[in-house]
User: Fold these one by one.
Assistant:
Number 1:
Amino acid sequence: MWNRALLSPVLRDGAHKVLGVVAARANSSTQSSTKLENVLEPMVRKDEKAQKINRAMRAYLERAQTQEKFLSEKKEEFELGKRHLANIMGWDPEEITQENIDEAIQYLLPSGLFEPKARPMMKPPEMIFAKQKLAEFDYTGRPHNSLFYTARGNFYGRLHEAFSHVLRLNEHQLAMRKKGVRTPEAAEQFDLRPYDWINQGELAELCLERIKDEHHDYFIRSMTRLAEHPYSNMAREILLKYLKPKQVETHEQEILPLMHDEAGNPYMEARGERKSLRAIVKVTGNGTGETLINKSMSVDEYFPELKDRLQVMFPLQFVGLLNKVDVEATIFKRHDEYELGEMAKSTEEEQKELIKPLELRKGQAAEAGAIRLALSRALCSFVTEEDVKLMRLSGLLTKDKRKRERKKPGKRGARRRYPWRKR
Amino acid sequence: MVAMRGLRALDPIFRRTVPFGIARGVSTDVELAANDALLPKAYALLREPDAFKVKDLVSISEMMENRMHLGHKKTLLNPFMKPFIYGSRFDQLIIDLEQSREHMVKALNFVAHIAYNDGIILLISRHNETAHEVEKCAMECKEFAHVRPWYQGMLTNCGTSFGTEIRLPDLGLFITTRGSQTAANEFAKLMIPSVGVVDTDTDPRLITYPVPGNDDSTETIRYYIRLFKEAILRGKERRKRDLEDSGSKSREVLS
């Protein structure tokens, strides 16, 4: 193809290899010829108007154009659909808002799907189709970011920035040592304790790039290194970009002030629930320890089992108010009555159910649990804040969220299988 | 700048190692260069043996001071590096700095020419201690750096790795070649020329312009960074000056 012997001595010098680029171009049409043409002659293009745009940029522009066209088409469809919807619903098509559209869609196409994203929707196209990244290079195809060729330019750019801060802090540390400061004050170091690092998804969102596990790990390691520098408070701003306040779960219980009845005795009412049962408890101060359940009997009579009685009385014992307050509890099976606060809606039979012979009653543990929770909540108003904290820590104010598990097809109950023997 | 077919014809090393046909269908940006007002000037510069005066940049005493001559232990010698060895001292190989100087001048000249023609230069290194400085150098020269792990197919499969069509770099500048063999392979496959510092334990065959020299000491690498940066800046300054003389606008002004 190419005859090396024909090359001039000048060309053999390394510097002139650049020429080869152009030589190849000039001769690409006549590659079969054995003679090398004068490669030092500048190549003259016939079409002077040839575009000065790089292929990559051209591809981007084409893509952007198709995307724009696609979006405008979708937008038109959306506008038309909006008018149709307004006609169906009998609304003014000019004044229909997005809330109206959502409402209409929910009305016309009701969906029982759990995942909201899976339900039918009608939204402006720009909300549904992802935004396209802007061009990262200029019209010659030269990228703007110096780290573009790592394929994660923004991510590594952030790491580069962080490391330049480490260098700056090191310099500062050296200068301080020269001044005679050997051990810097603790306040010079950034306190990481009240913060958490951002997670992988958030980092990816910041960088607009695909961040793998290893990248996130490396990022956190690098940032921790910066944060653990003795003078890291100087780099506070960059650290805070990647930190978020620690999520502290607060169990603040709202404590209502005590109320007083006609006789001047303090009292408080509270509600509690367990499984499908609900209870309302009224605790009256200056009492003698009397209990009344469902306006019919005392705790000892109502709960034949010792464990249930213990459950109910435990909050009183815990705060030391045993035999000092009176307790009045009502148990509800119906939700609407519970909301109302009285058993107005139950039939007589249902009411009888609650006070039928003890041996026949079911769900006593749940009843006791519901009363216990309601009682604990009511007692909060009678005791100090410190006691409330103790009650919370011992679990008295925590709702037991367990519910009956549904029966499954093919199973006798929720999990129990039917007996089966191999034939 | 990328069409390297001619280069392959000119260079015996390149011709030997890169099979024909691999780079077919790779995007080339010759049209940009062709439309460039500076093209006649670029050709004129190529006629000059040392257009950017890079010879003055390199001196053997400075190379020695920066420990460029120190190689690895004898046992680690890559046979292809044999021609560049001066001798050994206490089992440690010493690189022939006379040859290194020659190669370095060639490499710097090539880098400056690429910079003059507005080529994209990608600095590559896997030397961790100086990684930050390499990136900084690239940012200061408005060129590009890759000092991170190189995933295979980064350039050969660029449509996937970048998610879009991109312009490939025009020159791979390997500040250290040892840990970047994958990258060197890709540059060779794509017919993109490369300049690289090769130590006595490194395979120099896929590097278009190998420069034999120590690539482990921090100060040696800093010396390389200084040299290459100067070469790039000289090329760019000359381009800027010539563009002003010819009255056409530079890329920066246009964009």
Number 2:
Amino acid sequence: MKEIRIHGRGGQGSVTAAELLAVAAFADGRFSQAFPAFGVERRGAPVQAFTRIGDEPIRLRSQIYEPDYVIVQDATILEVVDVAGGIKDEGMILINTEFSPDTFELDTKAKIVTVDATKVALEIIGIPIVNTVLLGAFAGATGEIRPESIENAVKERFPGKVGKKNAEAIQKAYEIIMEAKA
Amino acid sequence: MISTRKIAKEKMKVVEGSYAVAHAVKVCRPNVISAYPITPQTHIVEDLSQFMADGEIPNCEYINVESEFSAISALVGASAAGARTYSATTSQGLELMHEVLFNVSGMRLPMVMTVANRAVSAPINIWNDQQDSISQRDTGWIQMHAEDPQEAADMVAQSYRISEDRDVLLPVMPCMDAFVLSHVYEPLVLLEQDLVEEYLPPFEPEFVLDPKNPRTFGAFADPSIYTEFRYLQAKAMDKALLKIEEAANEFNEVFGRYYGGLIDEYEKEDAEIVIVAMGSIIGTVKDVIDKLRSKGEKVGLLKVRSFRPFPIEAIRKNLKDAKVIVALDKNISMGLNEGALCTEIKACLYNTDINAPVIGFMIGHGGRDVPPSTINYIIDQARNVMSLGITVESQFTDVKEEMI
């Protein structure tokens, strides 16, 4: 089982991202579970959402304390939240930022991967909403889900033009990560 | 029989727990829905409102009301008039209904009302525990607890079967833990309309409120007759024990999913330490048990599915070989200072040959998370009881001493 923790601010779509991840993973033939860190949500306040992905039905219902992966939607959150908290040594932290991984001094052995999701979102979607874009990067960086499955989940959730633009941005982010890896 | 479920991936869809429940209500074809929105029940009634707006629930009226007291009162009239009724609530909303809950049961009106279990005020807290429904245990409602969203949805259909059975005629409160089950997205099977029609016969009440044939429901009963009403209500609860089992078995035949009837068990054979629990904590406990079993530790689980009626005989039979029994409670009876499940387990084992110690742990109040480490800690305590005997009968598990 793989455990994913998503950090963002209220209004950035962290809960939606967790849910889309669960939909995509299930479409890939795996089992999944997504839930928010149940807070009194306020726009702009730090929020968390969680996804579990596994090959068997998932029974565990506690929050995630030792994630395999962490997704950070907004790098300013690093100043107020310990995003690396509990992450496994062999884990990976994906941060939305224009800066390179070595810019970040986090207390962890986990790998840091960065992607300028805001730039991709502005170019393709036209607004700085990065939750879906980051899922494309996540697919590339981890191989846990197929980018097509994320794109389909987004198109189903947001039918029409919005979904299509988001799918394009997901593909772009996936390609950026794959090129960086090559 | 132990729980089994056919995994039919091709039929599953990733949805929110609340949506699964609302969808289950829809396919059960209620005639009257009345509810007042309150976190975290809100998504259930929002989804039902959407179904109504989209014309997906034929022959149904959704009554908007100004409070939970009115919501349940509206359903009293509707059920007496022969309608299949539904509501959903939680916490203070459920407590506001308290007076009317006795009336629904006393009038022997079938009704199904989902409770998204939440803590009670004060201090105000919107998160999960089970104090709200546990505090309604003596209102004469059948009270059942689901361990996951699929069971919570399936329990809606089972609840109508039980509630409308002419040997029962009591309202049913299927309970699901707030947020943990109501707001989780996971793959599950949405109840199929045709299978539900096969499983759940139309509601045909024996007595209805009808101007052409006037009757009185819940009339005055003086001391010469009141006791007999109470006696018959208690008898109906007894009969419900069998009907709950039947509803679960027949559900399994039609849908291929079984979660236990009155109770369920996990890794119980040869178990020395038995955890007794209700609701969403079950899944986490099962994962912990798997880890301990792989190390050869004899730990098992008894899941109480029906809290009212309390399945005394089934529990006695199930616990007869246990060495230590541990009750987990997301509630507290103030003054007794232990959880309700702990009290009931102890009571039902008294006057039997079972002499195993019973200890209680109160956990997860007001949404405090229950990670596997908390369950491991509890099992460590149970091991100590096995060798040293009971030192503390019931305790809070996760109090932050530094804050006291």
